[in-house]
Design brief:
By secondary structure, this protein is α/β, with parallel strands linked by helices. The chain has helices at residues 2-15, 30-39, 54-59, 87-96, 122-125, 131-135, 150-153, 169-172, 176-180, 216-221, 234-244, 247-250, 256-271, 283-304, 319-323, 337-356, 363-370, 383-390, 396-402, 410-426, and strands at 44-47, 68-72, 102-106, 111-115, 127-129, 146-148, 157-162, 197-203, 224-227, 374-378, 431-434, 442-446. The strands form four sheets. The protein has a five-stranded parallel sheet with strand order 4-7-8-1-9. A three-stranded antiparallel sheet has the order 10-12-11. A hairpin with a 7-residue loop joins β11 and β12 (442-446). The relative contact order is 0.10.
Length: 447
């Protein structure tokens, strides 16, 4: 089975085919290490903080298996017709010869995943006596009375154990034979099955999870320990949000500049000294943030009657209370959690503004305020109403172009202008007053 993965991985690399579809940000770091481990035939443990895509990476391993493989039809394990391993299948193969029935197993069925929990037993992983089979008249000690666990049932496939340190240490011992001798031992049975499995697992760094550890003999049996990480580049963060956030399902348009704000916000939170760095800030933080912003646009459209929901700056503040529970703060910041996130969100917005509209000529928009006029905006003010309040703005097309907006809908125009207004406030060229907190708050921009 490891030879199968070895050959298929080499074929993909030679053909220039990406063996890891959907994996973002690991191409120069994690993936080369994983490819070397698989080519060497090593079992692998991925070590990293929460939300770094470890499980997603493990599930993509199934794509390296042959699409279809022959198995003995009706066998309890996925045994090859030419290499049966259980007593029942060996007997059937001897009796039926070339008439042994064969079925075909898809590669998706050859990937087995188990979330390690403290109540997981040796029977769950390896196997135990089946009292039903004993009650049928078979004697104890008969190999046919064994109920096989998850690992032997993954014969000729991949076994993935998530959060391996959460397994009790005495349960981890049961995996030692699987990792080294490639067989299993069940209670007092003399049966030894030559298993053909690739065992992969995930774990959090031991300095973060005090729930348990990987015992030393088991850790020694893994051929490769690979550290994962959060996206190193901002672009990887943005690509991940676009790929994983259910924005199309929500039916709202999410402008690129707002996705960039969410990406920068996530990275600022991750790097903040106020946040417990050992716990990490999951990629799900950014994904949930983008979905929350889009949901705000959908809500506004339902209330105001907008035809096409387009997210705006006024939808950003809602992400702070929504994401507050996803971040673990340092003890010294107790009571200031929301204030910290609000400050970092403003920083992310200002950084995005400087990159996109900082060099732009916004005099046409600023002229609106020279005579002492003001503009009111808010989460429940429709795009059409906002444009009416702002009026004709010279240079609007240039602003939208710099933000990557090619459409001409009122929603896009309103999103561009509101972002420009917020940027002018954050760079102290306009002032802003917020009437009240909550979804009905009104924001007034003035000189």
């Amino acid at each position: 089975m490891k030879t199968e993965i070895h050959d298929n991985l080499l074929a993909a690399l030679r053909a220039g085919v990406d063996p890891w579809p959907g994996i973002v940000g690991f191409s120069r770091t994690v993936l080369p290490q994983l490819e070397r481990a698989l080519l060497a035939g090593h079992d692998v443990v991925l070590l990293g903080e929460r939300g770094q895509g470890k499980t997603r990476l493990l599930r993509s391993l199934a794509g390296l298996l042959d699409e279809w493989t022959p198995v003995i039809e009706g066998a309890e394990l996925a045994e090859h017709p030419l290499a049966p391993i259980t007593p029942v299948s060996i007997r059937r193969a001897a009796e039926l010869g070339d008439n042994l029935p064969v079925a075909w197993l898809h590669r998706d069925a050859r990937y087995t995943e188990k979330l390690a929990t403290p109540d997981t037993s040796v029977g769950d992983l390896i196997g135990d006596v089946d009292p039903v089979k004993v009650a049928e008249g078979r004697s104890l000690g008969d190999p046919e009375t064994i109920h096989f666990g998850l690992v032997p049932r993954a014969h000729r496939g991949i076994v993935a154990i998530n959060e391996l340190p959460d397994l009790a240490e005495r349960i981890q011992v049961a995996l030692l034979n699987v990792m080294e001798e490639r067989d299993i031992q069940v209670r007092g049975y003399t049966l030894r099955l030559p298993l053909d499995v690739l065992l992969v697992s995930t774990a959090n760094p031991e300095d973060y999870t005090n729930r348990g550890r990987i015992i030393t003999p088991l850790k020694d049996r893994f051929g490769a320990e690979i550290r994962t990480h959060y996206p190193l580049e901002l672009q990887d963060e943005l690509d991940l949000v676009r790929q994983e956030a259910e924005l199309s399902t929500l039916g709202a348009e999410m402008p690129d500049h707002l996705i960039e704000v969410i990406g920068r916000f996530t990275r600022l939170v991750r790097d903040s000294t106020a946040v417990d760095s050992r716990s990490g800030v999951s990629a799900r933080f950014a994904i949930a943030g983008a979905e929350t912003v889009a949901a705000g646009a959908v809500r506004r459209a339902a209330i105001t009657g907008e035809q096409q929901p387009v997210a705006r700056v006024c939808d950003l503040p809602a992400v702070v209370p929504t994401l507050l529970g996803k971040v673990e703060f340092e003890v010294s910041e107790e009571g200031r959690e929301q204030e910290v996130l609000e400050h970092l969100l403003r920083r992310a917005t200002a950084e995005t503004y400087r990159r996109t509209l900082g060099p732009a000529d916004l005099s046409g928009l600023l002229d609106k305020f020279d005579a002492g006029d003001s503009v009111d905006s808010g989460e429940l003010i429709s795009a059409t109403e906002l444009l009416k309040r702002i009026g004709q703005v010279p240079g609007l097309a240039k602003i939208m172009e710099r933000l990557g907006m090619s459409g001409e809908s009122p929603g896009q125009a309103a999103a561009a202008l509101e972002f420009a207004l917020e940027g002018l406030f954050l760079t102290r060229r306009l002032s802003k007053d917020v009437s009240s907190a909550g979804p009905d708050a009104t924001t007034t921009y003035r000189t």
